[in-house]
Structure formats: C-alpha cells, structure tokens
Amino acid sequence: TSIEIATPATKTEYFVGDAADFADLTIKANYNNGTSKVLADGFNVTGFESDVAGVKTITVEYEGKTVTFTVNVKAIELVSIEVVTTPDKTEYYTNEAFDATGLTLKATYNNGAVETITTGFDVATVDMTTAGTKSVAVTYEGMTASFDITVTALYITNVEIETLPDKTDYIVGEAEDNTGLT
Fold this sequence. Notes:
This protein has strands at about 1-5, 15, 25-30, 35-40, 45, 55-60, 65-75, 80-85, 90-95, 105-110, 115, 120-125, 130-140, 145-150. By secondary structure, it is mostly beta strands. The strands form four sheets. The chain has a four-stranded mixed sheet with strand order 2-7-6-5, with no helix packed on it. A hairpin with an 8-residue loop joins strand 12 (about 120-125) and strand 13 (about 130-140). The relative contact order is 0.14.
C-alpha cells in the first residue's frame, strides 16, 4: 500500500561529479494485510544528477509506490593554496629581473582533492630596486600564498683598466686625453 525509508542513505552530501552512493539505503514496504517488509534492494532509485550543484530530489520506487528524499550536491571550490616549491632562483641583486620559473603550488579543494599547480597563477610585482628580504605574493583563483626572496645591494667591488688610453706619454703642462680608456 505504501513504502517509506527504513534506513536513510548515509551519504547525503555530494560534490559535482560524484557518483551516487545509496548502498546502505533500505525501504519499508507496507502491505494491505498490515505486514511490512524491509528491503535492501529490488527497488529503483532515480533523480540523482551531480553535474550541477543544488538540492536533488531522489525518488525511490517499488511496485508502483514512491517515496522521496533529498541530497545536496555542492560545487567544488578551492579552499587554500600553498607554495610547495619556491622558484629555482630566490637570491637576487638589486635591479635584477625576478623569475618565477620552478614555482609550484598545492591547491586544496573542499571535496578533499589536492592538485599541483605549475601554471595559471599570478605573481605580484616585486620591488627589485632595494635590498632586503621581499615577500612575494602569488594568487591562484582568488587565493593568495607567499614566499620570500632575498635582494642584495649591488655595489662595485673593484675597478680594472681593460684598455689604456690611446695617449700615455705627455709633456709637462699638456692636457690629459683619456680617449680609448676603458
């Protein structure tokens, strides 16, 4: 005469792309003679689609009778990023160009999935004109992480003459001529 949920499905929260899991669902079939029977299989379950997020109404059908329950399908969202590998180069001199080659991120999603990211992120502009430890921000899908680089002041350690001037012999009082000096 009717059916009802005897044991609800344990899994009622899904993520987009998940497969349905109603293995532990049981129903109670009620008969016109006052008896009932709990069934773990032999019924049809329809209405589950995980291609789009939202509340889904699941219909259980057995011998022409139906009962419904709902499950929630959540969108997969990024919850955090972290720097796994800093760039190959983290030591610079002032005014040297920053290079993010080798930077690797770990992206963690609300469904527990973890992904290694090597492209598609944005690295903030770094002030390379001054010396010091610089925090470099990297952004991926709205999340930000950072790592440090060191910028050392560039200064002259020595001066050498590579080429003597064209004129090296002078008469007293003659003006100096440095043409050719490097």
